[in-house]
């Protein structure tokens, strides 16, 4: 039995729901369908809790379950070949637990960064996202935002300071 009580299940659900939805959406390209699919996986997990043996890596297990559920849906929609080629093009074809574990870690990290970024002022958040997530240089950001390079540097310094502080708190 994986979960002793509802509180333990809720903790796992809250920690994994958004990253699993993001992962499912990267395969299905549908927010609502991805949410339904992840809810189905958690429902199945809760319903079959008593029959499940202990799982070594719960994150890898959940991400594998979501991936399998997504492919079941794609096959049902007769779009399996098209979606599979897009899935392989993104480099997710390795089905080992190690790769699923690293994929789980990646999506959990992305959710963590997104959560920390909510503490940034809007302009800092925008500059940080443009540089770290979109890969723009300071000069490109300055040109697109109509600000000086020094202002971009100051926003980045402020963003990094706030992120470090918030990370240390959690």
Helical fraction equals over 70%
Q: Taking Cα atoms only, what radius of gyration do you get, to the nearest Å?
A: 19 Å
Query: What structural class do helix, strand and pairing data support?
Result: mainly alpha
Count of helical segments?
8
- What oligomerization state is this entry in? single chain
The H-and-E topology, N to C, reads as: HHHHHHHH
Shape: elongated
- What is the terminal-to-terminal distance? 30 Å
Strand content: under 5%
Query: What is the count of structural domains?
Result: 2
* Spans of at least 5 consecutive residues with low confidence: none
For the largest beta-sheet, the strand count, sense and barrel status come to: none
Mean pLDDT: 81
Number of strands: 0
Blueprint of the fold:
Layout: H1 6-28, H2 31-47, H3 58-76, H4 80-89, H5 97-117, H6 122-133, H7 138-145, H8 149-169
Helix pairs in contact: 1-2, 1-3, 1-5, 2-3, 3-4, 3-5, 6-8, 7-8
Explain what the structure shows.
- With 170 residues, the protein is mainly alpha-helical.
- The protein folds into two domains: 110 residues; 53 residues, Winged helix-like DNA-binding domain superfamily/Winged helix DNA-binding domain (Arc Repressor Mutant, subunit A, Orthogonal Bundle).
- Helix content is 77%, strand content 0%.
- The longest helix has 23 residues.
- The radius of gyration is 19 Å and the shape is elongated.
- The two termini are 30 Å apart.
- 21% of the residues are buried.
Short structural description:
The chain is mostly helical and 170 residues long.
